[in-house]
Task: inverse folding
């Protein structure tokens, strides 16, 4: 089965638009992977997590879905994590793949605008 998946991914990623779309969702897939690993490690079903969080199984299914149209709040993620025996950590990490534009003008620090 793995070789079929690898073959499919190789063929799909040969299409630049598919590869670009996949790469753009990379962070979401990585987050989802962490969420699903944590629930699996806790040995809980979606229904059991829902009962601990105080919500429905379908709400947990939406939280665990990349295709969800709703981004859960930090408070919801914290309740979910606590139900699994985890905690949420949020960090900003420099994305070396993207170049950021240097701020200039009123919104920029004085050192960037050239003022002393």
Result:
């Amino acid at each position: 089965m793995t070789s079929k998946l690898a073959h499919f991914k190789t063929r799909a990623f040969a299409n630049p638009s598919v590869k670009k779309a996949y790469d753009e969702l990379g962070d979401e897939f990585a987050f989802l992977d962490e969420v699903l690993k944590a629930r699996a490690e806790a040995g809980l079903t979606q229904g059991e997590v829902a009962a601990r969080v105080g919500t429905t199984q379908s709400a947990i299914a939406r939280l665990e879905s990349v295709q969800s149209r709703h981004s859960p709040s930090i408070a919801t993620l914290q309740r979910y994590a606590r139900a699994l025996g985890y905690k949420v950590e949020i960090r900003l990490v420099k994305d070396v793949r993207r170049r950021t534009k240097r701020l200039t003008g009123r919104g920029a620090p004085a050192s960037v605008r050239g003022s002393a």
Q: What stands out?
A: DSSP finds seven helices and no strands in the chain. The mean pLDDT is 84.
